[in-house]
């Protein structure tokens, strides 16, 4: 498929400005040939207006028709075949195997939302008839702006979880492509538009614009924009959040801003399995060149032989991992800068570093610091995006709990422990419960299952709203609100709320959950 | 019970500043004798710190024990007997009958949350075991600050819906009493503290502070405060929202800021029932001196004989309603000021006004304006808090839809129509659905049933977060977030997530809703 470099206002290709950006292959630093025209203010306005117009039709589309649309998107994305994998590889430096896996995850996620719509109970129908006749269900908010993410060109970008959940909810989507992979975005955007056309969705249900922060700002500020999904840095995520709150009508922003995903290595576990844990964690720290929001960036244990053996083994294992190309030049240079800053902090010992530079390779790096130094220096709690992790050695379990208490909000927290140790760690678990969205026992935080129980969202600064998740089927809840109908005639009620429950969904009726 | 005028840091009476406020009886303008000491910065700090400490224990209290606590609160509030009704009457000017009704609603709401906890399914347990073992349920956020509301000294104040839902969620509460009814607050606060002690709840699970906006600001800014419940004016509600978003760690603010609750009178209905509708609406407009957040402040119809008859009848009916004392002098004078401002706008015809002043009486007032003038002047969409309503006469149904489209977010929207008319109004309903949290057919918006299906919260500026409600059992969702446990041993999982479902709650397991 020829890449055109245009924006899409609904199905209409648009190119109203001559400003353009180009993708750069991070493996060799060369620009890819295509020009991607940056959306100007008019195109932003037109895209959101068209989304608002499409919403007037799309909000009435049935669950089963939305499901057909989503399934068609999944099929069209797969139909792009190797061209998509190749383009995404050129724009992200990610290997084909990883991209194929991510594509599989992405289409499965889309299909999961299609299944959710067909099942139908997600609308949270509640009916009370004892005082007055009140019937409530969820409705879409309106046009949603989605920001493509650098680190997941498929799963958190054009047809990723934000887009899929918003479209499932009944919200049109305007995507701002990530500057690093505009070609990948265009291919996927065209697949979505093809699916929309084939399944008879209103034009404007999906639009795609190219550009940087200015385009993002304009999209968030547009009065018809009703919600925002974002995955990326703390700086960008919080600035979008603040901008949205300062609008005349504030709107919800779901920014997922990463975290350091602390891992607690407890003593007995360390004693018996230091080497195995090191090998497991070397894989998790370096997965995707350490560019996962769930990368374990902080490993906390009690000083002693076990932790020393773990440190040595992890260092050895990291040395054996081939450095991988990072997503783009900016991320690679920020990695070097943040790593340098962190390694220069008081008390930080560099356990393993490779000084070799060149390309945009992310060299695995390991450092260690005492809990005393860690607790007195907030910089050491900051994320280093890349294959870096910091071991914190604590004098004793009191100190370990102090470190736990000092933590900011996280996406995940992990305990590596024996069953007995975990049972003895109620106080630590209790502290940690307040710090994270997902708590893991004897596993690695990388690998985020797409399912109904997944919680990918934690207390600030991990995300801007810890009540929601950006992965899994409940991600749809970000883009809906309840509407109650009081004393409405049956024929004017949506099917979900009618007597007799024609859709057979689970409902809460006068206090009873029932499919009757 | 002797009113002491103190703050309560948990169960400890506190009086660290000599600054005080006094309640004023709005019926005669005289100050009530008791001094209420205003919390100073230290007391704010101590109260929230104690709440945070209590949270460490309270978060582990079982649902059935929290239910016992809530039931005890309901009992202790009732045990205050007539003294509570009398004090609230002196501080609010509200008649005893209304206050008794409000007290009944308040204790029923508390008991509803107790029932919700005993039933247990509210935790939204989700279990997936097909990819990895992930089990998720809701957990409390932490200390919640609740602002007492002037217009509901019981139902939206000390032991009102915010407090009851936060305590049910597992969050300690710090209440800032409303300056108008600090004595009522103290009586209810002591009832809550007595219930907490009797049921063995941790000290600090509830605190009560007196003061104005400075105390509120300090409470919202305290780093351990995790969420805020507020019912009141747009100005106060949005300033709390902005303050909370600008914290180092932003927190959710649920401000319910009222609305004008537009009512659409359709032609056939008007034609046949103009007089009955007028009588019904005279009651709704003047209920509680028009000081309900669901008061119908805007009535929209198509010009003609029906609307004229309705206008005349409503005017007559309003003249027959005795003016009632407003909640306080500030509210009474703001009513006069806003009413005057609105009546002086271009094209506004005063249909009925009583110029008599004196006391803090709220005289019912009726005005009328053409849709053309209404659409060109945003001031006419602003809430006049008190027994005032504005009729908008439209040339035709297109104009009526234009008015619908111009509306800001509302708590409620109402259609008075025949079944046939409503069936013919799909386009109007579709517009209105985006504007409100609750849509009513042939009823009045005042009267908010406390039940699972109630949605008392609408698009901004009605509330700061339309995804939630402040009335009904789902109000608990404001104060919780999901936490996922991955690969946890059975014995360390909360009962709600264990195999075998010992609590027998409804759960979503691998895509199936089940109590197994």
Task: Explain what the structure shows.
2 copies of one chain form a homodimer. Chain A is of the alpha/beta class and 516 residues long. Helix content of chain A is 38%, strand content 19%. The first copy, chain A, has a 7-stranded mixed beta sheet. In chain A, strands 21-6-5-22-23 form a 5-stranded mixed beta sheet, with no helix packed on it. The longest helix of chain A is centred in the first third of the chain and has 24 residues, at 96-119. The termini of chain A are far apart. In chain A, 61% of the residues are buried. At the A-B interface, strand 5, strand 6, helix 8, helix 14 and helix 15 of A face strand 5, strand 6, helix 8, helix 14 and helix 15 of B.
Assembly classification: homodimer
How many helices of chain A? 15
Number of strands of chain A: 23
Indicate the proportion of strand residues of chain A. 15-25%
Mean pLDDT of chain A: 97
Largest interface: A-B, 75 and 75 residues
Structural class assignment of chain A: alpha/beta
Tell me the span between the first and last alpha carbons of chain A.
50 Å
What percent of residues of chain A adopt helix (DSSP H or I)? 25-40%
Q: Compute the CA-based radius of gyration of chain A.
A: 24 Å
Poorly predicted runs of chain A are: none
Instruction: Specify the biggest β-sheet of chain A.
Output: 7 strands, mixed
Which word captures the global form of chain A? globular
The strand order across the widest sheet of chain A is: 15-17-18-13-12-19-20
């Amino acid at each position: 498929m020829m890449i055109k470099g245009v924006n899409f206002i609904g199905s209409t290709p648009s190119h109203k400005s001559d400003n353009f950006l180009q993708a750069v292959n991070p493996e060799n630093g060369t620009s890819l040939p295509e020009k991607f025209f940056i959306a100007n203010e008019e195109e932003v306005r037109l895209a959101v207006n068209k989304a608002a117009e499409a919403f007037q039709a799309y909000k009435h589309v049935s669950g089963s028709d939305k499901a057909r649309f989503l399934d068609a998107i999944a099929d069209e994305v797969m139909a792009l075949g190797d061209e998509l994998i190749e383009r995404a590889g050129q724009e992200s430096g990610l290997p084909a195997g990883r991209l194929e896996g991510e594509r599989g995850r992405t289409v499965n996620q889309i299909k999961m939302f299609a299944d959710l719509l067909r099942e139908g109970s997600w609308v949270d129908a509640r009916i009370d008839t004892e005082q007055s006749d009140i019937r409530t269900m969820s409705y879409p908010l309106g046009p949603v702006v989605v920001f493509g993410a650098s680190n997941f060109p498929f799963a958190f970008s054009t047809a990723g979880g934000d887009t899929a959940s918003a479209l499932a909810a009944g919200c049109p989507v305007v995507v701002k492509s990530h500057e690093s992979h505009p070609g990948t975005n265009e291919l996927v955007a065209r697949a979505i538009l093809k699916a929309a056309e084939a399944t008879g969705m209103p034009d404007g249900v999906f639009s795609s614009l190219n550009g940087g922060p200015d385009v993002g700002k304009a999209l968030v500020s547009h009065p018809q924009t009703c919600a925002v999904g974002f995955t990326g840095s703390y700086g960008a995520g919080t600035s979008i959040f603040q901008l949205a709150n300062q609008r005349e009508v504030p709107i919800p922003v779901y920014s997922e801003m990463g975290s350091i995903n602390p891992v607690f290595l407890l003593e007995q576990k360390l004693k018996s399995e230091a080497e195995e844990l090191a090998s497991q964690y070397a894989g998790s720290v370096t997965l995707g060149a350490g560019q996962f929001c769930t990368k374990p960036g902080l490993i906390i244990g009690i000083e002693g032989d076990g932790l020393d053996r773990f440190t040595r083994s992890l260092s050895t294992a990291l040395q054996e991992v081939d450095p991988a190309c990072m997503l783009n030049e900016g991320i690679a240079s920020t990695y070097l800068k943040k790593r340098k800053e962190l390694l220069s902090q008081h008390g930080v010992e560099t356990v393993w570093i490779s000084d070799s530079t060149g390309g945009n390779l992310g060299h695995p790096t390991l450092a260690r610091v005492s809990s005393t130094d860690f607790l007195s220096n907030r910089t050491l709690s900051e994320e280093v995006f890349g294959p870096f992790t910091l071991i914190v050695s604590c004098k004793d379990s009191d100190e370990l709990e102090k470190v736990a208490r000092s933590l900011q909000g996280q996406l995940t927290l992990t305990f590596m422990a024996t069953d007995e140790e975990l049972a003895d760690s109620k106080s630590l678990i209790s502290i940690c419960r307040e710090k994270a969205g997902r708590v893991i026992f004897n596993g690695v935080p990388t690998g985020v299952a797409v399912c109904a129980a997944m919680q990918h969202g934690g207390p600030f600064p991990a995300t801007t709203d810890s009540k929601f998740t950006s992965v899994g089927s409940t991600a749809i809840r970000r883009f809906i609100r309840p509407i109650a109908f009081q004393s409405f005639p049956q024929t004017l009620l949506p099917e979900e709320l009618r007597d007799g429950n024609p859709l057979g969904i689970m409902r809460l009726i006068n206090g009873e959950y029932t499919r009757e």
